From TrEMBL:
GO terms for biological process: glycogen biosynthetic process. Coiled coil: none annotated. GO terms for molecular function: 1,4-alpha-glucan branching enzyme activity; cation binding. This is 1,4-alpha-glucan branching enzyme 1.
Length: 431
């Protein structure tokens, strides 16, 4: 599988679990030598109270040999291109993040509550991988925001290349579940998307795998729920629920992609609004495989609206490939207007404008910009091919004025319909 992926130019990362291990003592590491302290801490310190699993003793020489050799095996024998380290927050602290909130205060990250042995192991692992296989990528699943976790070991950092921006998908679900559209807080959305440590790379994502598992709902299902079963056909009327869901699904993905980090992660199926959850065969579902799949065929049926979401995702990613905003410095957010529900920012020489208002469109809306010139629309979530209402003329030219606005030296006027996102390019600067 990995060889085939490599032949197609696909990088393959392994979700590696070095944060804990199964309590299975029959064919697992637990009680390997008859004691409970062979690879793990002895007593209560060696058991994770929420996961009911064993916790490694990272000060033990044989544990280090075992875990480091495990990483080398996956790279050198199976040719994996790197790792996503699972449960890093649990590793970093003696409290394992249980019942603990993180506000960003440095006292939360430096003290006796930090598991220095685990932190040193992570630094050692990243140093080894970078030294032996500098082409490999490592990603930390850390929700705490440990400073310098994604800075080089030579700088005293943890050595990871990226960390997952885990607060972003949680924020979208919280907003959709708890707030009316009129009550969405633009400042809170922008804060969540931009709240990251300077020069540490984050991976932004709009939907997490946890939200698509049985017992929860995908982002699209949260937005449209049961109507996805009856009203996703283009032959049926476009209901308010489906219309709202399609428009917001596009906007959420674009603003997460453009503002949320230095990389973008898509959980399979979210690119076209997969309607159902994932569930693997187990006793609770009579060992059924019914939900153990993604229905990629939905995008191929031209009578279904899923193709609109999929086409938008394709063009959004192609636009990023062309302009490279993920590799660009963080965006400058010029506007987060609460009553208008408008967010505007600049990144990679492009202007991104989002109108989250459920019904208010704005004519001659002034947006502050840095670089003067003639601008045109590159991406419009309201276009017909994306399931939009075609309220914008893509031949329109927007000319800047030397009129300061929102701390920017220039500005321009745009028409921005409700529940629409547009991306503008300065046509005087060819790309």
């Amino acid at each position: 599988m990995i060889d085939v992926a490599h032949s197609m130019g696909i990088t393959v990362l392994l979700d590696v679990v070095h944060s804990h291990a199964s309590k299975n003592s029959e064919d697992g590491l637990n009680k390997f030598d008859g004691t409970d302290s062979c690879f793990f801490h002895s007593g209560p310190k060696g058991t994770h109270q929420l996961w009911d699993s064993r916790l490694f003793d990272y000060a033990n020489w044989e544990v280090l040999r075992f875990l480091l050799s495990n990483l080398r095996m996956w790279i050198e024998d199976y040719r994996f291109d790197g790792f996503r380290f699972d449960g890093v927050t649990s590793m970093l602290y003696h409290h394992h993040g249980i019942g603990t909130g993180f506000s960003g205060d440095y006292n939360e990250y430096f003290g006796l509550h930090v598991d220095e042995d685990a932190l040193c192991y992570l630094m050692l692992a990243n140093h080894m991988i970078n030294f032996l296989h500098p082409e490999c990528i490592t990603i930390a699943e850390d929700v705490s925001g440990m400073p310098a976790l994604c800075r080089p070991v030579a700088e005293g950092g943890g050595g990871f290349d990226y960390r997952l921006a885990m607060a972003i998908p949680d924020k979208w679900i919280q907003i959709i579940k708890e707030l009316k559209d009129e009550d969405w807080n633009m400042g809170n959305i922008v804060h969540t998307l931009t709240n990251r440590r300077y020069e540490e790379k984050y991976i932004a994502y709009a939907e997490s795998h946890d939200q698509a598992l049985v017992g929860d709902k995908t982002l699209a299902f949260r937005l449209m729920d049961a109507e996805m079963y009856t009203n996703m056909s283009v032959l049926s009327p476009l209901t308010p629920v489906i219309d709202r869901g399609i428009q917001l699904h596009k906007m959420i993905r674009l603003i997460t992609h453009a503002l949320g980090g230095e990389s973008y992660l898509n959980f399979m199926g979210n690119e076209f609004g997969h309607p159902e959850w994932l569930d693997f065969p187990r006793k609770g579902n009579n060992e059924s495989y019914h939900y153990a799949r993604r229905q990629f065929n939905l995008t191929e049926d031209h009578l279904l609206r899923y193709r609109f979401l999929n086409t938008f995702d394709r063009d959004m990613n192609k636009l990023e490939e062309r302009f490279g905003w993920l590799a660009s410095p963080p965006a400058f957010v010029s506007e987060k207007h609460e009553s208008n529900k408008v967010i505007a920012f600049e990144r990679a020489g492009l202007i991104f404008i989002f109108n989250f208002h459920p019904y208010q469109s704005y004519v001659d809306y002034r947006v502050g910009i840095e670089t003067p010139g003639k601008y045109q629309i590159l991406l419009d979530s309201d276009a017909a091919e994306y399931g939009g209402h075609q309220r914008l003329d893509h031949s329109t030219e927007y000319f800047s004025e030397e009129y300061p606005h929102n701390y920017r030296p220039n500005s321009l006027m745009v028409y921005i319909p409700s529940r629409v996102a547009i991306v503008l390019q300065n046509m005087d600067i060819p790309k």
